[in-house]
Design a protein that fits this description.
Alpha-Beta Plaits; alpha+beta
């Protein structure tokens, strides 16, 4: 699924900790994706998707997240947008910090790659 008008994307691969794939999927759905959807709603990115590798243990990732952007400037700004939106959705600094720590305990970052779209 390519977002209409996408010129570039950010692809992030994560490896869930052993036995934590379902918990990490839940964390993404309940905690992270609301931030993503808020960013889409305000036009900071065009769309996003998360793919889950449930069958090929030889791959280095269990969760592949793709963010689609209209421009490189949009892509360059996305982390600051997420940092601004997160406190709006969870104003309690302590709870937000605990959720972040919990999320980090569920996975390891494998790679983060900025890509250009063809066509």
């Amino acid at each position: 699924m390519r977002a209409t008008g996408a010129k570039c994307a950010k692809v992030i691969q994560f490896k869930a900790a052993d036995g934590k794939s379902d918990a990490y999927s839940d964390y993404l759905r309940e905690t992270v994706e609301p931030i993503d959807h808020a960013a889409v709603k305000e036009g900071a990115l065009l769309n996003m998707m998360t793919l889950v590798n449930e069958t090929d243990a030889s791959l280095p990732w269990t969760h592949l997240r793709i963010f689609f952007f209209a421009s490189e400037a949009q892509r360059a700004a996305i982390k600051s947008v997420f940092a601004r939106i997160a406190p709006q959705l969870q104003p309690d600094d302590r709870k937000r910090s605990m959720r972040k720590t919990y999320g980090e305990s569920l996975r390891t970052l494998v790679s983060e790659t900025d890509v250009e779209m063809l066509g």
